[in-house]
Amino acid sequence: MKRAFMAAVLLLLTACSPASTYVKGEVVSCKTISQDQTFIGGIQMDCLDRSKGARLGALRGPMVVNVWGSWCGPCKKEIPVLRAFHDKAQGKVQLIGVDVEEANFDDGRTFVERNGITWPNLYDPDGRSREYFGLGVPVTWFIAANGSVAYKHVGIIKDLEEIVSLTEKYLGVQL
Questions:
Q1: What is the CA radius of gyration of the chain?
Q2: Which of 66, 73, 107, 156 could join 102 via S-S bond, C-beta 3.0 to 4.6 A?
Q3: How many CB atoms lie within 10 A of CB 48?
Q4: Distance between CA atoms of residues 101 and 148, nearest Å
Q5: Bridge partners of 16?
Q6: Of 24, 23, 101, whose CA–CA distance to 69 is shortest?
Q7: pTM assigned to the model
Q8: Sign of the CA dihedral 126, 130, 135, 139?
Q9: Do the Cβ atoms of 92 and 173 come closer than 8 Å?
Q10: How high is the pLDDT of residue 40?
Q11: Closest Cα to residue 68, out of 94, 105, 99?
Q12: C-alpha triplet 143, 147, 149: angle, nearest 5°
């Protein structure tokens, strides 16, 4: 009788617990990153999948580029917003990430997989991209079709409404 009571209590407690928010991510190829193939010079970044990535100056939008690091607390907080944006913007605006100043590929790859990231990510182990993106993370760049920087957002993007509004305002894409 006592066991049956305990089993019922455990069942009730687990039934009332919140649903898991875990979403499995995957390290995605950077082959889909929109870039000017004739662009020469600039900073070449590898892809987090260990393949050739992209030249930063060759990026062409409409594109949102989020610069992050697995060691960055605020970067972790904005991942759910970026996931929702990626789902909403697919086919209209490309989302890519730039993983900066990681000790090795595996730290970034693990972060991607554990945080539900499913868009291409460039890898910058030594911070060379700082010449292009500047200091600080998280920082999110809005890249126009011609490759110009339409807007730079420093700090965390707090919700889906904010990133959609910035995208519509600076890239002229209705989501």
A1: 19
A2: 107
A3: 26
A4: 25
A5: none
A6: 101
A7: 0.84
A8: negative
A9: yes
A10: 83
A11: 99
A12: 45
Cα–Cα distances (Å) from 7 to 2, 10, 17, 28, 67, in that order, read: 9, 5, 16, 43, 47
Task: List the beta strands (DSSP E) in the chain.
Answer: 44-47, 52-55, 63-68, 94-100, 121-124, 139-143, 149-154
Q: How far is C-alpha 74 from the chain's CA centre?
A: 12
CB 160 within 8 A of CB 85: yes
Q: Which residue is it, tokens 């060379």?
A: 128
d(CA 160, CA 162): 5
Is 23-171 a CATH 3.10.250.10 domain? no
pLDDT tens digit sequence for 39-85: 888 889 999 999 989 999 999 999 999 999 999 999 999 999 999 99
The CA distance from 125 to 102, in Å, is 5
Q: Where are the domains of the chain?
A: 23-171
Range 22-27, long-range pairs (CB < 8 A, 24+ positions): 22/116, 23/83, 23/115, 23/116, 24/113, 24/116, 25/112, 25/113, 25/114, 25/115, 25/116, 25/117, 25/118, 26/112, 26/113, 26/117, 26/118, 27/109, 27/112, 27/113, 27/121
